[in-house]
Write a structure and sequence with these properties.
- There is one protein chain.
- Among the domains are: 141 residues, no CATH class; 144 residues, 2-Layer Sandwich (Heat Shock Protein 90).
- 44% of the residues lie in helices and 18% in strands.
- The strands form four sheets. Strands 1, 2, 5, 6 and 7 form a five-stranded antiparallel sheet that branches. Strands 11-13-14-16-15 form a five-stranded mixed sheet. The protein has a four-stranded antiparallel sheet with strand order 3-9-8-4, covered by helices on one side.
- Strand 13 and strand 14 form a beta hairpin.
- Helix 4 runs parallel beside helix 5.
- The relative contact order is 0.08.
């Protein structure tokens, strides 16, 4: 059966990638527009003066650009003695304060400015000789004919602004009070916001990726389940041809293979039936011709003829009854085994029930009944009696049919599932069947998606363990 074609896996994956990029872009842009821009952290000259003096100071608001190498400072154009906003903003790098016996020194590429030192001393109200100020300039000059190495300091509202490391000191009676800008955090707040943007974008994409993965995996899972059913039962319904182009081609190939397997099994069954039908005539002739033979010879030949007829009938039954399931319906497995044990006990056979959990499977009730009947017959015939138990283990029904017979060598356990293989080496019908019971039982178990194995029991005896999937 074929349904409308869909996009190939290649195009589906490509469209998902493009959609992912588009969604991440839209979410990131939206969060960028909604979030405040990163505010660079800095320390003004008043911040340093307050940290050194330990008290609040009035703020001067003057707009200017000052070159720290100039000994003169441009005339201040505007003055406003008011509290600035520098002391009100939440800082990322607050100045650290320590007491030292010696004056601070320049570190690395730090420089000093006489003008800034004088202004710092004036803000605190101490002589210039009692203060030290070292800093890293921030801004490079962009003016023509200026040295690229010339660096400036921004002055905002009359306050020099230091964006990089600053070290300042104030002479006190106990030594020097030193303030310093602490090292920058490994991940700044603005970088944390960027990571948050990408994290939110990923979270937004997860549901779409999950839906796409489910949509892509669903037809693949159906193909896997159908292929598993096909391996157990070539007569199972064919797979619906749907989904991406590559999967539809795969499904079509599996359906054709199933048709060929089904035709092969039908041809094999018909061939064996024809052979069995044709063998009846020569067997009847042999039986007629030995009527005049001596009694001793006639009885032996008749026994061989009956054995051949039984083997032919069993082979036909084996081919006919394995490889297909006539019906599939819910089956209460615990009840089926109780009925089987009850029927056996009514006729006086040594069959008992152990622990039986309530489980339900899907399958052909007649086929499953035959499976467990064969296991019971083998256990009673070769082990003198059986005990049946059912347990629910990891989503499967585990059925154990155990006896207390002599058991089998470990090397012979798997061989018992080969057609015409018997644990009792003679071919006497009175000591058992012709060796197809376990083959038929395993075939039925596999047709239902299960398994069947034999194991020796501790202390003696043999145990047949059948596992069938629980009905979901």
């Amino acid at each position: 059966m074929t349904r409308g074609g869909g996009l190939s896996i290649f195009w589906q994956t490509l469209l998902l990638l493009l959609a992912s990029v588009a969604v991440v872009f839209v979410v990131t842009v939206g969060l960028f527009l909604a979030s405040p821009p990163p505010r660079p952290d800095f320390n003004s000259l008043s911040d340093i003066a307050e940290a050194l003096s330990g008290r609040k100071l009035p703020r001067e608001r003057i707009w200017d650009m000052v070159n720290p190498h100039d000994k003169g400072v441009r005339k201040e154009r505007r003055r406003d003695r008011d509290r600035g906003d520098a002391d009100e903003r939440e800082r990322e790098r607050r100045l650290s304060i320590v007491e030292r016996p010696a004056a601070p020194l320049s570190e690395g590429a730090m420089i000093s400015s006489e003008a800034f030192s004088e202004r710092l001393a004036a803000r605190i109200g101490v002589p210039t000789a009692d203060v030290r100020l070292y800093f890293e300039p921030d801004q490079r000059s962009n003016m023509p004919f200026h040295s690229r190495h010339e660096r400036r300091v921004i002055v905002r509202r009359g306050e020099p602004i230091f964006f990089d490391t600053v070290v300042a000191g104030l002479r006190t009676d106990a030594g020097w009070r030193v303030v310093r800008t602490p090292p920058r955090a490994w991940i700044a707040p603005w970088q944390q916001r960027i990571l948050m943007l990408f994290g939110v974008s990923v979270l937004v994409m997860i549901p779409f990726a999950w839906i796409f993965a489910r949509a892509l995996a669903r037809p693949i899972r159906r193909i896997a389940d159908a292929a598993d059913r096909l391996g157990a039962n070539p007569q199972a319904p064919q797979i619906t041809e749907e989904g991406p182009a590559e999967l539809r081609v795969t499904v079509h190939a599996l359906n054709r293979m199933q048709q060929r397997l089904s035709a092969y099994l039908t041809e094999r069954t018909n061939m064996i039936g024809a052979i069995a039908h044709d063998l009846r005539t020569p067997l009847a002739r042999i039986a007629f011709r030995i009527e005049g033979a001596p009694d001793e010879m006639r009885e032996k030949v008749q026994a061989d003829i009956e054995q051949m007829r039984a083997m032919i009938a069993a082979t036909i039954s084996f081919v006919r009854d394995t490889g297909s399931i006539s019906v599939v319906e819910p089956i209460a497995l615990d009840q089926l085994l109780r009925d089987l044990a009850g029927d056996e006990q009514e006729v006086g056979r040594p069959v008992t029930l152990g622990a039986v959990d309530p489980v339900e499977v899907s399958g052909d009730p007649m086929a499953l009944r035959r499976l467990f009947q064969n296991l019971i017959d083998n256990g009673v015939t070769y082990g003198g009696g059986v005990e049946i138990g059912v347990a629910h283990i990891d989503g499967e029904a585990e059925i154990r049919v155990a006896d207390r017979g002599p058991g089998l060598p470990a090397s012979a356990l798997e061989a018992m599932f080969r057609p015409f293989e018997r644990g009792e080496p003679s071919r006497n019908r009175s000591t058992g069947g012709i060796g197809l019971g376990l083959s038929i039982a395993r075939g039925i178990a596999q047709e239902h998606g299960g398994s069947l194995v034999l194991v020796n029991r501790p202390g003696g005896g043999l145990e047949a363990i059948c596992r069938l999937p629980i009905r979901s």
